Amino acid sequence: MEQIGEVLQREFVYVWYYFIVQLLQIALYYALGIVLGSVVSVFVKDRIHGLFRSLGDKKLGILGVLPASILGIASPLCMYGTIPLAASFSKSGIRDDWLAAFMMSSILLNPQLIIYSTALGGAALTVRIVSCFVCGCMAGILIRIFYKKKPFFDFTGFDGSHNHDTDPNMFLRLVKNIGRNIKATGLWFLVGVLLSALFQRYVPADRFAALFGEANEGFGVLMAATIGVPLYACGGGTIPLIREWLYSGMSMGSAAAFMLTGPSTKITNLGALKIVLGVKRFFLYLAFVMLFSFATGMIVNLIL
User: Fold this and answer.
1) Which residue, 2, 25, 66, 234, shows the most beta carbons closer than 10 Å to its own?
2) Nearest to 257 by CA among 230, 220, 297
3) Could you count the other beta carbons within 10 Å of the beta carbon of residue 59?
C-alpha cells in the first residue's frame, strides 16, 4: 500500500507540473479572448448585426453569402442567441441562403475564439478562419441551389433575441459581460488544460502521431472529424488539447477537421438548430458538416 501511495503521489506531482506549465503557456490567450470578446459584444455587436440587416436592401444575389459569412464570424453571440436574431433578420427580408451562411460561420467561430486560437500558431489560426468562412459560404450556396423556392428555416415562435448587456453604465456593462464569459467558459478551460496535461503525461507522442499524423492522413482526418462530435464542449476548453495534439504530431488537416466538427456538433448548438430545421434538414446539416470537415482536412494536408 505504501508503494502504491508513493506511485500515486509521484504521478500527481507530474500531472500537476504539466498542468501548471500548460496553464502558464495559454492563460494569457484565454484572458485576452475573454476581454476582447466582451468588448466586441458590448460595443460592436449592434453594429455588426446592423450591417447584416442592411444586406437586405442590396441586390447581391449569391455573392451575399460572402459578407454574411464574415459577419457571422464577427458576431459574438452563441447559437441560442443567434437563432432569435436570425428570426428577426428573416422577418426583415434577409434570404435563407444568407442566413445559412451567417448562422453556420457563427456556430464555428467568433472573435473570442479567434483570440484563443492564436495560441495554436499562425498556420492553425489561418486554417481555422479560412475553413470556417468557406464552410459558411458553402452552406449558403447549397441552400440557394436546393432550397431556392422553399423555406429552409422555420422560425415560428421566435420574436427577438434577449440582450443581457443593458446596464446604463458602460463600464459595469463590460464587467458583467466579462463575468458571464468567465462563468460560461472558465471551468471548461481548466478541464481542457487538465486533459492536455494528462495527455502529455500518459499518451506516447509517437503513437499519437502514427494515428493522426500525415503518414495516416486519410484515416487520421476521419478519426479527428469523428472525435470532434463527443469531445467538444467549449471552444476555450479545446484549445489546450489541440495545441498539445499539434505538438505531438497531429496533422494540420486532422486538426482542421476537429475544429470544424467540434463546434458544429456541440450539443447545445445541435439542440438549438434542431428547433429551426426539423428532422430531415437536421440530418442534412450533420451530413454536410461531416463531409465538409473530412474534405477540408484532406485538402489542408495536401496543401500544407
Assistant:
1) 234
2) 297
3) 6
